[in-house]
Amino acid sequence: MVQTIRIEAAAREQAGKGAARATRRAGHVPAVIYGAKQEATLISLDPRIVVKELQKGGWKSHLYEVVVDGQATRTLMRDVQFHPVTDMPLHVDFQRLAPGQKIRVMVPVNFLNEESAPGIKEGGTLNVVRREIEVLSDPDAVPEAFEIDVAEGTIGDTFRWSNVKDVFGTEAVLGRDFVVATLAPPTVEEEVVIVAPAPAAPVAPAKKGKK
């Protein structure tokens, strides 16, 4: 199961673009905690902490305990805005979690034993339709990843939600046995035959007329 990550933050008093720019000029990342039918809490974060979490990957399915003035709030990191040139984080949105609330999260999918699959050995390709699956989950039981074993996969096989080894009590938002991946046949390249143009027919000499 996913672990809870503790993040220290500072309170911000003012909202708006001007206040957010001032926060960034001071070397911090503006952020907000919203949800659970409570007023939004404006905070600022150390950019090094934000970058560290983003580099881990899977941050949308991690639980974050955001601590402001000694008070901890259980959250999910829902959205991050980035600078178009430097790719540094400009703003972070956290969703506050209410007790007993199920959450919608994207969980990545890992495919096991691809190299053992007969279809792969025959030159086939695993065509991944969904690299992440959106599910409803208890906040304390969000999986780090789902796993599908493709060791017995042959060309033409389809791997569905029902093929996930353990769903950890989650419920797929799509609500049906949807396709996650297929094992496609090898691509056959057609040989292009270049046909040389036929030689031009000789031109008969013109007959001389009688004088």
TrEMBL record:
Keyword Ribosomal protein among record annotations: yes
GO MF terms held by the record: 5S rRNA binding; structural constituent of ribosome
Domain Large ribosomal subunit protein bL25 beta: from-to ranges: 102-186
GO cellular component: cytosolic large ribosomal subunit
CDD domains the UniProt entry points to: Ribosomal_L25_TL5_CTC
Keywords: Ribonucleoprotein, Ribosomal protein, RNA-binding, rRNA-binding
Subunit field text: Part of the 50S ribosomal subunit; part of the 5S rRNA/L5/L18/L25 subcomplex. Contacts the 5S rRNA. Binds to the 5S rRNA independently of L5 and L18.
Function summary: This is one of the proteins that binds to the 5S RNA in the ribosome where it forms part of the central protuberance.
Family as reported in the entry's similarity comment: Belongs to the bacterial ribosomal protein bL25 family. CTC subfamily.
Protein's UniProt name: Large ribosomal subunit protein bL25
